[in-house]
């Protein structure tokens, strides 16, 4: 069996899911080629698990000062190039296309009538979720952006639908707590804004991962270059995490049993929905401007219990090898039964 696996590379969560799926698919003897779009090739890092992967321009969004910049997003994307890439992608040698919300592979599969499945958090919006009803807005866009024959959604709770638990790798480092050490990942905020938010809290130590070449230290703020390995080490020993509302990172924080203070990216419906669900499940506090009272209240909380998510990647790889015949509902039911500490809806 040979698969083309398309990954939307705008967010690191999509790439992380592919990192988890790659060895699971290989273990089942499935041959996989990877295609990434939505990010410049020079901005991709720690890509060794994907071998000789392909890159296309795809579609992405632009951010200015923590908000979606709709004009730049419109002008910097090229629908002409997207159509060219879709038409040029030859799928003859593949038995199946998997899309993690990646448009080039999804549309190529649709046009060439190749079997396709989607594995992504976004496909969970097909079902009712807590919060402001964003799914009604999201689903038409999702169907247009990355259409697939069957979408497998992932979330922190099943909400009585055929939604699977998060698809993340096991934490490779022992979970400890270094009091006062806060891990920060706010890639959509500008550095000066992050500095203003964190500067007043000199009794805490902030390790901020961002797009820089080498480490920089400013009193109690430690700026660190992007590194998957170093980030996971910091995640394992930190006292808490401040981050945007990306699904992948929030899942890792919940898995590790770390308290989460999160800021949804303004104008991004998925992150607004994630924030609402996190609050609904009691898994995080949400902020738009980091205020002293909220920070100290959050920082003073005890760490939550870790959540031991089941091996979703292995289950999906077996499901794919067996022709995707089992219903998504049955697959979801089996995986949630394996979860020892399913989050309670509050």
Automatic annotation (TrEMBL):
Gene3D superfamilies: Glycogen Phosphorylase B. It comes from the Bacteria. This is Glycosyltransferase. It comes from Amphritea atlantica.
């Amino acid at each position: 069996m040979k698969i083309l696996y398309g990954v939307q590379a705008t967010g690191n969560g999509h790439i992380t899911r592919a990192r988890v799926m790659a060895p699971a698919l290989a273990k089942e003897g499935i041959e996989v080629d990877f295609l990434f779009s939505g990010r410049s090739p020079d901005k991709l890092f720690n890509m060794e698990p994907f071998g000789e992967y392909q890159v296309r321009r795809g579609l992405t969004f632009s951010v200015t000062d923590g908000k979606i910049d709709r004009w730049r997003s419109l002008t910097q994307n090229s629908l002409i190039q997207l159509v060219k890439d879709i038409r040029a992608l030859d799928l003859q040698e593949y038995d199946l296309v998997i899309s993690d919300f990646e448009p080039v592979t999804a549309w190529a599969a649709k046009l060439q009538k190749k079997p396709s499945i989607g594995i992504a958090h976004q496909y969970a919006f097909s079902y009712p979720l807590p919060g402001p009803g964003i799914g009604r807005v999201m689903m038409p866009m999702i169907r247009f952006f990355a259409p697939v024959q069957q979408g497998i959604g992932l979330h922190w709770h099943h909400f009585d639908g055929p939604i699977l638990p998060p698809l993340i790798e096991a934490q490779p480092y022992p979970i400890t707590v270094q009091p006062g050490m806060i891990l920060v990942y706010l890639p959509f905020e500008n550095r000066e804004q992050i500095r203003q938010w964190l500067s007043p809290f000199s009794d805490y130590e902030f390790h901020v991962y961002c797009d820089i070449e080498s480490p920089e230290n400013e009193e109690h703020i430690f700026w660190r270059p992007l590194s998957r390995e170093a980030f996971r080490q910091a995640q394992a020993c930190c006292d808490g995490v401040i981050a945007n509302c990306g699904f992948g990172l929030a899942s890792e924080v919940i898995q590790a049993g770390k308290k989460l203070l999160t800021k949804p990216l303004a104008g991004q419906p998925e992150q607004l929905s994630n924030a609402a669900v996190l609050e609904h499940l009691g898994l995080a506090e949400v902020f738009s401007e980091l205020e002293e009272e909220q920070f100290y209240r959050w920082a003073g909380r005890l760490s939550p219990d870790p959540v031991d998510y089941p091996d979703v990647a292995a289950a999906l790889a077996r499901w794919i090898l067996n022709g995707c015949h089992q219903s998504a509902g049955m697959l979801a039911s089996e995986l949630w039964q394996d979860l020892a500490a399913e989050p309670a809806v509050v």
